[in-house]
Structures are given as C-alpha cells and as structure tokens.
Design a protein that fits this description.
The complex is a heterodimer. Chain A is an alpha/beta fold. Chain A has helices spanning 41-44, 50-56, 65-79, 86-117, 122-126, 130-151, 171-196, 241-244, 268-275, 281-290, 294-297, 302-325, 373-394, 401-411, 433-443, 461-471, 480-486, 518-522, 525-528, 532-537, 541-545, 565-579; strands spanning 2-6, 16-23, 26-34, 160-161, 164-165, 209-214, 226-229, 234-236, 264-265, 341-349, 352-361, 364-371, 445-450, 477-479, 496-503, 513-517, 547-552. Chain A is elongated, with a radius of gyration of 26 Å. Chain B contains eleven helices and seven strands. The chains are: A alpha/beta, B alpha/beta.
Chain lengths: 580, 260
C-alpha cells in the first residue's frame, strides 16, 4: 500500500491537506484533512446576548466574515421577528458584493491562476504578467474598500447590527463606488474571457447535485429564504436539515453533509449551474458564450464561474447604489421587543451556501447551528479527488495524482477556517478494515453477502465466510448466487448496508484485507466485472450507494477446491472480528 | 541564497486566518513587503515554502492541537524573534473563552462526542506564550494595518516598536466621537487595548473588546467610572470574557484588586 499526500495545502484559506491511498491498482482511500484545532464556535455564544453573538460568530472566518455577518443577522432577525428598512437591506447587499468580488478576485488571480500558468505563487507570476496581477490587486482593493465603507473595516467589521446599521455611507462614498465599478468593466470582461478559456483538464468529470439559495423573483443573487437544488427540489430555510443531514464519521472530527446519501456541491459553480440562465446584461451574454455541458460535471470550472460572478457583481453594484440613493434619510436600527424565538439565515458565501440557525430564550442565545460551505463540499472534494486519482492511475500517470488533487481541492476554494464543524481529521492506519467494518455495524444493520466461485480455490473465500456466518447464527446472510437469482435484497432499506465478501486482486500480498465502497470498485475497470451483476441486481439505488466490499487478496484463483493458508487466515480474522 | 535580506516566516495555527489575510490586504505595500524581505514561508500566499532558520517568525492563531504545539516549538527553535500576531496568538482568541479546563472538556464533548483521536489530540486553546517565549505581541481581531506596517518596517531595520499601553478611548477622543457611555450604552472602550482606530464607536456601535484587555490601565478609576455611570459590573466582566481569552484570569484578578 502506498500513500500520496500533500500535507500542507498551499494557497487555500487555512491549514489542510489531502491524501490518497493506493492499493495496487485501486485508489482506496482519499482524505481531505483539516489541521485546524477545534474552536467550539457553536458553544461559545450560548448564554450571551444576540448582539454579542452577532459580533463573535463571524470570527469563524476572516475571508467570509461578512457572509457570516449577513447570515447571523438574517437568522437573528428572523428569530426576533425584525423587518429591516429597505435601505439597510440594499446596503447589506452592496456589502456582500464587496466580499464576493474580494474573495473571487483573490481566489481566481492569486490562488488558482498560478497553477494554470505554472508559477509557485502570484508574486512569481507578477514578473511575466505584471499588468494582470496589478489590476487584479486594484480590483481586490476596490472590493475591500466597499467592505470597509459598509461594514466599518475590511475584516470583522461591526457596523452591520441587528435591525440595520450603526451608520450609513455618505452620498459621496456611494457615488465613488458606483463610478469606480463602471471603470472596471473592461478589465472584468477580460477576466471572464481569461478564466472561461483556460485549458481545464477533463479529469475529473462526473455529475453531482448542486445546491444554492433561491434568490426569488427569477433573479440571480446571493441570498434567499429557500434552498434550490439542481434536481429542481426546494426547501424552506427552516427545513435546511433536509438537505444537509449532518453526520459524524469515525475517521474524522469534521461533520459531513450528504443529500439522500449523495455528496453535493455548493459554491460559484453550483450557483451558475442552477441560476446562470437568470444573468442579464453583459454577464448574460458572456454566460451564453461560454457556458457548456462540461460546467455540469467538472469542478475545475469553479474558477470560470467565479469570473462570471465577478462580472455579475460589477453590473449589480451601480444599480444598487442608485437604489440606495433613493432613500435620503438614514433609518435608525429597528428596535425589537421579542425575547425568544427561532430563526434561520441562508446566505451564499463566496464558496457556497452558508446556514446559520439560532434559538433565543429569555433574551439569551440558547442554541446555535452553523453549517459552512466547506463542510458541505468536503464529501464532493474527496469524491472528485478519488475519481481524478483513479483515472490518472488507470492511464499510467501516477506521477500527476498529487498535483491534480491539489488543483481539484483548490478549485473548490475551500475555506478551512470555517471550522465550526471541522477539526483534525484522523487518518485510519493502513489495514484499518476493522474500523471500517465497525463503523458500518455501528451506523446501520449490515447484510452480509458471500460472493465468488466455489471451484476457484481462493475465490471461494467469500462463500466460505457467508456459510460460516450462517453457522454462527448470523441473520441476513446471503450468497451471491441467491441474490442474483431470487431478489433476496427486496425489503432492505437505506438503513441497511450491504457488505460483500470476495477475493479481490489488488496486487497486494496474499491474505491482505481491504474494505472499499462498492462505488469505488465499480469505477475501476479491472476488478469491477465481478460486481457488476450484483450492482445490477440491487434495485434500490440508495442500497447500491450504501454497499461495501470486504476484499481479500487471493493467492490463486485457479481451478481447485482448496483455499490457500494466507487467505484462510484472513477468513478467520474476519470471522473473529465479526463474532466479537 | 543569502542576499542580506531578513528571512521571515508567517505561520497560521488555529483561528480565522484573518491576520494572514490582513497582511495580504496590504495591497499597495504587498509587493514592497515581498521585495524588502525574504519570505521563507507563507502558506496562504505561496506553495513554495521552506523550513530553515528564520530571523523573524510571525505566528497567528491559538494552540489547539498537540500537532500545533510541536509545530510552534519547531518555529521557536528556528527563529531569532517570534512575534504573536492577532487575538488568538496573543490571548488565545474567542476559542479560549472557556478558561476552566473542565468546562472546556464538557463543551468539547457536546460538539464532538466521544470520538477518540488517533492522529493528533486536541488541547484546550491557549495563546502561544503558554508554550514558547514570545518576543513581541501585536494584538487585534484582526490586527490593524497601521500597527502591522509600523511593526514590519521597524523589524526590517532591526528594532521592535514600543507597545501600545492605552485604551480605545484615547483614539476615540481624537476622533471626536460622542462618548457612548454617556448615552448609557455599555462600551468596552476604556478596558480594551487600542489599535483599531476606535472603529466601532466611530460607527455609533459600542466597543466589543476585540483587541483584548489593555495593559497598564488605571483599572481602579475605570471601575468607579463604570459603576458611577450605572453599569452592572458583572455583565461588564462577562462581556470582557468574550475577547480576553486566557488573559481574562489576570485581568479579573487585577480588576478585583483595584476595585477593593
């Protein structure tokens, strides 16, 4: 077994790593790791006033601090039943534009572009692309300026408060922002052209589900009261858990999210896929010019989607300023009398759907639930890295795996500081099949299936295990031939996990045990043929997703009735483990 | 390559990465900063990082895992001067709000359950001076650009600036703000270290204390001032806890002594 790992991912926000484990011909395990320590953010503000919470929660993340600010404010104002003045609403949107442009311009030009142009960092790139680097810096600077004017300072500004703002920007400040935005348009168009025409590799490409806020009124936008999925489904804000279904995995402190058992993606690419048809003006034209089917399946297009959103923001900023200027009076922050309540705030942070949920009891915060975009993307980041690593391994480009995985992780623009739910990820040591089996048994009721052929020496090991399990009195044990012939799997639900036992050739030492998701096996051509009939016989799709293969490396699968000693030993180990 | 430039490393432990981000935010000065010194390590900005001897290490974030303790000790060994930047490195950050180890353990369990970590164990968040000697402290959540550039330009010339032993109120007065305390709004300005430019009172918002407690303040006078204005001292202390991290204990001791 071999491990490829990037221990310190550079040019991402925060401290994280990615690793892949290779079992012979199969990429068996991909882990996106977070080295940030636990911060217990959701517990810090329990017992404090809503105002103190609004000050502290955005400290989760510096780069998305205003998204957190907007999300916590929307959540609190829903909980305390506050309707803010339209001017406050518009100013918050303008403030959000600042953060979006700042984050996207930093990510596209400084964190991602060096990958595509072959430089270690933007400073090195500056010698050859001085103009681009300088104008991108100007753009970022302008976005910081918007954030500073609206929120008080660039990071962790305290001017946005429950019920509105402490102070509003002056007319001059607003006019400056509008004019400057218009001046940037030629460079913005160049930015879109540049990032939409980069040569994005076609590995990995695979469908996923995209989730984002529904801005309403057929508009593009960065918040809403509903969540919209690429499947067409919608959820009201308080029902967010129907999407996120947070769960704990035993190999990680990072809570994960899956929708109906499947990983999903959030972020600029999700928004452009779900809402891109709503772009108007220049952005709409450029969307029509560049958007194509590959954007549906290739996470590397995140960068292109971010460029389109930069353009959307620059077209929206002048409109917003005009709308704000219609209100001459500065409204006072709305006072509230409610002492208790529950609320949810949905916002599109630059890197995707951000959810804050708060409960207030007797004027004090009593419950906080925060779901960050990176926590939601973690599963898809691993999935796409696995697909990329496997494809590269299959085509003999093992040396490219490390670099490509880094490219994929970076495309998602992960913000590791968002560690509300994230902390250290522990790597299961090699030979960790016991832990995996334990996890399966702990979280669901397993159905054991012995696969293989009786008359092919070691290939009989799966059947041997199944028969012995029956002998030990285990229920829900089947032979592969039975499930293909007799539909024995009808009646099982997503609460069950299918566990296949079989001899699997991983190019390892005979008797080595490996547990892999059936999905992984099916994507690998050289060993998938054994399992295709099973996969086809599993009619319940959620069961198919919830299936694992416990593979034993065979010594020989020649015609014969004898299982080799090393495989016999592995069979005993598995039985002993399951018996306890 | 020794080009006579100072070797500098910028490191991030547990936190929001806001201080490293603020350094990147010095757009106009950024290219000059990178030219003036030899940046050996800055993960947020570059993938080309080295782990050699350093003249100055800037460390952001609190120490929250055993891995970070090791990393920090290694940085200390390699660096002539270690500077703590930001609230998390200087006082432990908001995540060090639970100063009682038992309370921390309880909350930790509430969030993460009973899962046993095998790779690196979490530890209660502490400022970096809980583990290593620190040569200079630059407070702030996040650090202020002016204070950072001040520190940086001096450090490049081989000295460190004097610290800022004054509360937010000093700058607030320069900015000619109406005192929020006079309006009956509980503002933590008198107890909080200066450096933000009194940004919150400038916006008519009370100070939340995010620079941490001010050193060398006349706490006796502050205590009576707040009491005289009719503020509940207990709730003031509770508010101070949000951004004081582990330094709250010293602060409260002193506050108690002074208020007798």
């Amino acid at each position: 077994m071999k491990k490829i790992s990037v221990d310190h991912l550079a040019r991402v926000e925060g401290n994280g790593g990615i690793s892949a484990t290779i079992d012979g011909k199969v990429v068996s395990d991909v882990k996106f790791s977070i080295y940030e320590g636990p911060r217990l953010i959701e517990k810090l503000t329990i017992g404090l006033t809503p105002e103190e919470d609004v000050s502290m929660s955005p400290r989760i993340c510096a780069i998305c601090s205003l998204s957190h600010k907007n999300a916590v404010l929307r959540s609190m104002e829903n909980a305390l039943n506050i309707k803010i003045h339209p001017k406050s609403y518009l100013c918050r949107e303008l403030m959000h534009m600042g953060e979006m442009v700042e984050s996207h311009s930093l990510h596209t030009y400084y964190l991602s572009l060096p990958d595509y142009l072959g430089y270690p960092n933007a400073i090195a790139m500056a010698s050859d692309f001085e103009l681009e680097v300088k104008i991108a810096l100007e753009m970022k600077h302008f976005a910081n300026h918007i954030m500073k004017v609206l929120s008080g300072r660039y990071i962790h500004g305290e001017n946005p408060i429950i019920g509105g703002f402490g102070t509003f920007p002056s007319r001059d400040e607003l006019i400056f922002i509008k004019n400057r935005a218009i001046q940037f348009m030629p460079f913005v168009k160049k930015t879109v052209d540049l990032f939409c025409t980069l040569d994005y590799p076609d590995v990995p490409e695979k469908e996923t589900i995209y989730a984002c806020c529904e801005p309403g009124n057929s508009n593009y936008g960065f918040w809403g009261d509903e969540i919209l999925l690429s499947t067409g489904e919608k959820f009201f804000r308080d029902d967010y858990q129907k999407l996120t279904n947070e769960f704990v995995v035993s190999h990680s402190y990072c809570k994960r999210s899956r929708y109906k058992g499947k990983p999903y993606s959030v972020g600029a690419l999700a928004r452009v896929n779900n809402l891109g048809e709503r772009f108007k003006g220049e952005t709409g034209k450029m969307y029509k010019k560049y958007f194509n089917k590959r954007w549906h399946v290739n996470p590397l297009f995140h960068n292109a989607a971010q460029a389109l959103e930069i353009s959307y923001c620059f077209e929206r900023i002048p409109e917003l300023v005009d709308e704000i200027l219609k209100y001459e009076e500065d409204p006072k922050a709305v006072k509230y009398t409610a002492k208790s309540g529950k609320g949810t705030g949905l916002v599109e942070a630059p890197r995707g759907l951000l959810i804050h949920h708060h409960e207030i009891t007797d004027g004090r915060v009593s419950l906080v639930d925060i779901i960050t975009p990176t926590a939601q993307n973690a599963e898809d980041i691993e999935r796409y890295c696995q697909i990329a690593a496997q494809k590269l391994l299959d085509s003999g480009k093992e040396d490219k795996i490390k670099e490509r995985m880094e490219l994929v992780v970076r495309a998602f623009d992960p913000c590791i500081s968002c560690s509300a739910h994230m902390a250290e990820v522990t790597h299961t040591p090699s030979g960790s099949w016991k832990n995996k089996l334990e996890e399966i048994r702990k979280n669901s009721s397993p159905v054991y299936i012995g696969a293989g052929q009786q008359d092919r020496s070691d290939d009989a090991c799966g059947i041997d295990i199944a028969q012995k399990l029956r002998g030990l009195g285990f229920k829900d044990v089947w032979l592969g031939s039975e499930i293909i012939r007799d539909d024995k799997l009808e009646g099982y639900t997503e609460k069950n996990t299918l566990v296949f036992f079989d001899a699997v050739d991983f190019n390892e030492k005979a008797g080595k045990i490996t547990v892999l998701p059936l999905e992984y096996i099916l994507t690998h051509s050289s060993i998938s043929h054994k399992f295709v009939p099973f996969a086809a016989s599993i009619k319940n799709l959620s069961l198919q997703k919830n299936a694992y293969v416990v593979g034993i490396q065979p010594d020989s699968v020649a015609r014969g009735n004898k299982i080799s000693p090393s495989v016999q030993k592995a069979v005993r180990e598995i039985l002993n483990h399951l018996r306890n | 390559m020794n080009n006579g430039k100072l070797k500098i490393g910028i490191y991030e432990l547990t936190g929001c990465a806001g201080d490293a981000l603020l350094i990147l935010d010095c757009e106009k000065e950024l290219l000059d900063i990178f030219k003036a010194v030899d940046i050996q390590s800055f993960l947020m900005a570059s993938s080309d990082n080295r782990d050699g001897k350093l003249d100055i290490a800037l460390v952001e974030g609190s120490v929250s895992t055993e891995r970070e303790i090791e990393e920090l000790k290694d940085i200390r060994e390699r660096a002539e001067i270690v500077i703590a930047i930001g609230l998390c490195a200087t006082v432990g950050g908001i995540q060090a709000r639970f100063t009682d180890p038992n309370e921390w353990k309880k909350k930790y369990k509430e969030v993460y359950g009973d899962i046993e970590m095998t790779h690196t164990k979490p530890v209660q968040s502490k400022p970096i001076d809980a583990y290593i000697k620190v040569d200079y402290y630059l407070p702030g959540c996040p650090i202020g650009k002016e204070q950072f550039l001040d520190l940086f330009t001096r450090a490049v010339k081989g000295t460190l600036p004097e610290r800022y032993p004054r509360p937010v109120c000093v700058t607030c007065k320069y900015n000619e703000n109406d005192c929020l305390l006079n309006k009956g709004i509980p503002c933590l300005g008198p107890l909080t270290a200066d450096g933000c430019g009194s940004i919150c009172p400038n916006h008519n918002v009370p100070c939340f204390g995010c620079w941490g407690p001010v050193e060398g303040a006349n706490l006796t006078s502050e205590y009576y001032l707040l009491k005289e204005k009719g503020f509940d001292i207990e709730s003031i202390k509770k508010r101070m806890a949000n951004y004081s991290g582990t330094k709250l204990i010293d602060f409260l001791k002193q506050f108690k002594k002074e208020s007798k």
